[in-house]
Write a structure and sequence with these properties.
Layout (H helix, E strand, L loop, with lengths): L4 E4 L6 E4 L5 E5 L2 H7 L4 E7 L3 E4 L2 E7 L5 E7 L5 E6 L5 E5 L13 E3 L23 H12 L1
Parallel strand pairs: 3-10
Antiparallel strand pairs: 1-2, 2-5, 3-4, 4-9, 6-7, 7-8, 8-9
Length: 149
């Protein structure tokens, strides 16, 4: 993905720009992401927090995810569009919803997680590795290593 890249909510009240490429990107099929997205999964990429500049104010809602980790989801208070995720799993990184990207076709996930929670009406990506639940420490380290290669 080329940097910088930008994105915004549906109404444009909250915008962001990243000066760094994503550290990793995935498709998450957990029930929490299904509920948050209103769909089968969340398409999320994580970037270093210090590389992200946000204009406008996102509203955050924190839940305890299936993994037991805290997850804060940021959305536009005006239009409700989901935009950000702050996950306890990766505290130095900021999650950005792929649908909020100005150039959404540049999103490039490398893995699918929580595949055991995928809905029967969903079609998993045929070419991406699948992890049944949350990635283990070893699997997460492998995701980070593969993303930096």
């Amino acid at each position: 993905m080329q940097t910088p890249f930008k994105g915004q909510c549906a109404c444009g009240a909250v915008r962001y720009e990243s000066t760094a490429a994503p550290t990793f990107a995935w498709l998450c099929h957990c029930r929490d992401c299904q509920r948050a997205s209103g769909s089968a999964y969340c398409a999320i990429m994580y970037i270093p927090r210090e590389a992200l500049t946000v204009s406008g104010e996102a509203t955050y809602f924190t839940v305890t995810a299936e993994s037991g980790n805290a997850v804060s989801r940021g959305f536009c208070g005006a239009c409700g569009a989901p935009m950000f995720i702050q996950a306890e799993l990766a505290p130095a990184l900021q999650g950005v919803w792929a649908a909020s990207l100005d150039q959404a076709d540049t999103f490039n996930p490398s893995v699918q997680v929580w595949c055991d929670s995928a809905r029967s009406w969903d079609t998993l990506h045929p070419d991406l590795p699948r992890i049944a639940k949350a990635p283990s420490e070893a699997e997460f380290a492998e995701i980070l290593t593969a993303a930096s290669a």
